[in-house]
Amino acid sequence: HIIIIPTEEEFETLATTTINDKRLDFARDLFLLGCTTGLRYLDVIRLGGNNIKTINGEHYIETNIQKTGDYLRIPLNPINSIAL
Hints:
3-stranded antiparallel beta sheet; 19% strand
């Protein structure tokens, strides 16, 4: 298997490019969120506003992984926030 990971420059370009098609814009945001959190696609699409928690002024995604049932708390950073 060959895994191609976007360079930082490619990632930044993808994150800041304006996409006028709402479906493609949403797909891009899902991709970026998956890249920055390590979540599988199925776990990303299951996220909702109730998964965003604030603890001591810091924002987190809290979720149970569908495949394993493991509980995760993932700190949000500015790149994650773009996708949300």
